Amino acid sequence: MTRTRGAAPRIAAALAVVLGTNRIPFRVRAWDGSVAGPDNAPELVFHSRRALRRMVWSPGQLGLCRAYVAGDIDAPGDLFESFAALSSVGRFAETGPFRPLRVRERWTLLTSAALLGALGLQPRPPPEEADVVRTGKRHSRGRDAAAISHHYDVGNSFYSLVLGPSMVYSCAVWENGQENLEAAQDRKLDLVCRKLGLRPGMRVLDVGCGWGSFAVHAARHYGVAVVGVTLSGEQAVFARERVAAAGLADRVEIRVQDYRDVNDGPFDAVSSIGMSEHVGRAEIGRYATRLQDLLRPGARLLNHAISWNAGETLPDPDSFIPRYVFPDGEMLGLAEVVGVLESAGLEVIDVEALRQHYALTLRAWVRNLEEHWDEAVRIVGAGRARVWRLYLVVSAVGFETGLTGVNQVLVQRPGGIEPPLRRAEWI
Fold this sequence. Notes:
427 residues, Rossmann fold, 2 domains, seven-stranded mixed β-sheet, five-stranded mixed β-sheet, 16 helices
């Protein structure tokens, strides 16, 4: 255990209070060069007193994340190792909203901050925080559009660095975890096409079409006509250019449109890949009913979505990801999603869990980001790049530990052709 004079021991004491543990899982290095904490633990570097002040005002995940995004603290080693250590102790090992500090804990935190000259007015949150988006009626068309723009309109060139040439922003399907990311993403797109039973001449709706990856794949390889809808203007521009370059403009239409406003059904199939997380618990029933109305009898819907696996303890709506990454996003449990789809009159014909696949995909995205770090900072700024690095790492750890999952739920509107007796069509 290294312990020297200076600021580090007091920072370590304050950090122990915030984490809710007697033994911090970090080696702390302070702005004055002092160190404290276990010698072989991941290192946290506190560059200024402002980092501690953020912890005083927001003594939980949000305060530490704000300090990281602002550059007040750094984790110079393996961020996966650092976050795994953080999420394994005390209050951070619990799911749901953070427990408020007890009076004695708050006094210890304030005393440590006072002795280091770190007390003062609350620092402004980093500009990357999405408070301005979280106004108005939740999941109204205007607020949903603002939330989508906050996340997706940060620049197509930035997403190209992170996602790679496939521009697929959902989990890939891996054969062994060692193959190329593009091959794994292509495998996922083809799996969705086969699950939907696509055939030449079909008309397909792609809800939340992103940068057009699924629409182009389905039209090119399965001869279908696709209508893709997104609320992101930048995604639509990229997707249209991609469609034109592929020579598929006669078969693929990309719209900036809310799925609730699509009124030119019916469709022979509907794909919703990584979109329903934006819908919200209050709207998920209407979402299922709306998509059911857009399907022909016998047509299939594939809903690919992240799930919350921690039961009735819901994620903190005021934590890092809702504030910085996915304003108003909500993860539902698999049972809840299945129940909603069935209540809309849709028959479940297949469910596939892909949790491990998403962990592998996120690690691939982190590698892409870190390999192109200087270019990412040039495009979106250091703060936004830090947001994304932390978000991808946090998400990967969530999938690796089983806190979150991801599932493809395949349903069919009754009537028309019966579903296959076995999965032979897509396995």
